[in-house]
Amino acid sequence: MTTLANPPTQDDRTEFLREFLRDPFTVAAVTPSGRRLAEVVTAPVPRTGAPLVVELGPGTGAFTAEIQRRLAGRGRHLAIEINERFAGRLAARFPEVDVAVADARGLRDVLARRGHRHADVIVSGLPWAAFTPGRQDDLLDAVVAGLAPHGAFTTFAYTHTRWAPPARRLRRTLRARFEEVVLGRTVWANMPPAFVYSCRRPRTA
Q: Max CA-CA distance within the chain?
């Protein structure tokens, strides 16, 4: 198995827990995602060319490290993080990543300020189950508007919440906004176990 550059450390886990206790409705998890989940979530990042990869809600960088490993110095990597403490740590740890302190609902504006219209890949670590229906809708509208027609969007959910009302609503909303939505197998190695949504062909009408 490949080794991640800059994998999550005990300090990352401590910081994640601290931020969860400070603002549980924004962080909504008590520990960063694991390496295996990061590999699955970031699978659409191409290994050739110069793609623009946008990461929403990177936290302490569990997915960031894997995206950087896959890009290997190519393309652009933009991370949008609303938590200023997480953003500061992320920028210091990954100086090659463009870190924007912003709400992911403002994705189009963040892209426009950098001279971009669309991302080739959008990877999300956002806590969907913690969001109101309205906020879910606004975030997914921003994703669809910011994703290239040929692009891919991935996000994840915890297996134990799979049949909860927010998770069922998220699936319906994803299927309304993408022509292809694939639910991956459970990543049991993650804590807690999680699965990945892989979405393509955004419905822009």
A: 45
For residues 152 and 199, give the distance between their C-alpha atoms in angstroms, rounded to a whole number: 6
Q: What is the dihedral of CA 197, 109, 16, 187, to 10 degrees?
A: 10
Two tokens, residue 123: 């990877």
DSSP 8-state code for residue 95: T
DSSP annotation of 30: S
Report d(CA 25, CA 170) in Å as an integer.
Answer: 17
Q: Find the helix or strand (DSSP H, E) in which 85 lies.
A: helix 84-93
CA 94, 119, 133, 41 dihedral sign is negative
What the block records as the tokens of 111 is 């892209």
* Strands (E) located in the chain: 52-56, 76-81, 98-101, 119-124, 147-158, 178-183, 194-202
Q: What confidence tens digit (pLDDT) does each residue in 180-198 have?
A: 999 999 999 988 899 999 9
Residue type, 129: A
Whole-structure pTM over 0.70, yes or no?
yes
Distance of CA 107 to the CA centre of its chain: 13
Sheet order of strands, 178-183 included: 98-101, 76-81, 52-56, 119-124, 147-158, 194-202, 178-183
DSSP state of 93: H
Render pLDDT for 81-91 as a digit per residue (tens, 0 to 9).
999 999 999 99
Q: Which of helix, strand or coil describes residue 113? A: helix
